[in-house]
Write a structure and sequence with these properties.
six-stranded mixed sheet; 15 strands; Rossmann fold; 22% strand
Length: 393
């Protein structure tokens, strides 16, 4: 059998909850591989097996497995039937020999994991016997320290699986085990990285974007749509709410001192996002705030903004600097889209000298001059919903 053998790390520490975590990862794998001819995905003895046909393209499978959260590492493997009643390594020797013979290397090692302890050979016994066979077959030397080739063997109840190359996964927890969160996403660098980091911790992200139409173009909306499509590769399905915010900003400009506009904008965004989050049954809001990066992200202003809502506000980038955030954006593939020029509501009606140490009492006094309920209702009624799937249906 040709298959992918997948290992996880954090899930193994979950005790009695481990089967639930495993099944969520199995479900996510089935979704992301559904159009590639994958026959079966099963949880087996602390690992997951993805059965492949001879025609299933490994490059495409590997690319997708590398983006699935919850995977520590994976490999393309083949299996040899094993019979506990009549145990033998001869068939395994022949199969591994055929696999290794055409490869170019000078040193190698064999690394065996025995999941079923009823198998009469220990892991060390298998390492030695298979290693001796490969030495005789290839004339190459064993190196336990820094081998050029590592043959991995996994002994399960009914089969042994072998592979010659291990690929690193994305780590983290399977999307969906930590509930849903509403991620405020702009067209910039920070917020897509914040959403990615929450998905890596097992959250399913629902996206909310505030745009400046009718006062600016659709450029920021198009960027956000592209960013959400990229992020959907990690969670298979995404919902994006596009909220017109230009008119709401205009009303704030007409009724508030210039220095406090940015904080008022942010409080209003969170109020609208909170209502959408409750509609989607999200347990928290997520922003791309990084402490001290801009005027709205000072300790005082962050506290005042957060006070506008009751749901928890998560800030996964709060202790990161711009260089760290940019490096992660480059690694996950959102950076090039994020730096495309656009106009969004964050640059609309921004005062030259915004307040950096805003008082909550001052903000509350200013907000008494607005019909906050009506403004939130306006944003909700005009919000558009877009849906994305990967792979595309």
């Amino acid at each position: 059998m040709r298959c992918a053998i997948i290992h996880y790390h954090e899930l193994a520490l979950k005790g009695r909850n481990r089967p639930f975590f495993e099944q969520r990862l199995v479900k996510n794998l089935r979704l992301v591989l559904r159009d590639l001819g994958v026959r079966q995905v099963d949880a087996l003895h602390g690992r997951i097996r993805v059965a492949l046909t001879d025609d299933t393209p490994w490059e495409a499978v590997s690319e997708r497995l590398g983006r699935v959260f919850g995977i520590a590492h994976y490999s393309l493997a083949h299996s040899v039937p094993m019979d506990l009643a009549h145990p033998s390594l001869e068939a395994l020797k022949l199969a591994i020999g055929r696999e290794v013979a055409p490869l170019t290397f000078d040193t190698f090692r064999v690394s065996t994991k025995r999941a079923d302890k009823r198998f009469p050979f220990t892991s060390v016994d298998v390492d030695r016997e298979i290693g001796a066979h490969l030495c005789r077959l290839t004339g190459k030397k064993v190196s336990l320290g820094r081998p050029e080739l590592t043959v991995q063997i996994e002994l399960l109840t009914k089969a042994a699986y072998y592979s010659t190359k291990k690929e690193a996964g994305s780590g983290g927890l399977p999307v969906g085990i930590s509930g849903k969160v509403a991620c405020c996403i702009s067209g910039g660098i920070d917020s897509p990285v914040a959403a990615y980091r929450m998905m890596k911790r097992g959250c399913r992200a629902v996206f909310v974007h505030f745009h400046g139409r009718p006062y600016v173009s659709r450029a920021s909306e198009e960027k956000v749509r592209e960013l959400v499509q990229l992020l959907t590769r990690h969670q298979s399905y995404s919902r994006l709410y596009l909220v017109p915010f230009g008119d709401i900003q205009r009303q704030i400009v007409l009724g508030a001192p210039a220095a406090f506009r940015v904080v008022l904008y942010r409080r209003m965004m969170l109020r609208i996002a909170e209502e959408l989050a409750r509609k989607e049954r999200c347990w928290a809001l997520v922003t791309g705030d990084s402490l001290g990066q801009v005027a709205s992200q000072t300790p005082e202003n962050l506290s005042v903004v957060q006070e506008a809502v009751q749901l928890p506000v998560l800030r996964p980038l709060i202790g990161m600097d711009k260089i760290e955030i940019t490096e992660q954006a480059e690694r996950i593939g959102t950076f090039e889209t994020s730096i495309e020029p656009d106009q969004d509501c964050c640059t609309l009606f921004v005062p030259p000298h915004p307040s950096t140490k805003t008082s909550l009492d001052t903000i509350r006094k200013i907000e008494r001059g607005f019909d906050l309920v009506a403004l939130v209702k306006q944003g909700l009624e005009q919000a558009e919903l877009a849906e994305y799937s990967f792979p595309a249906r």
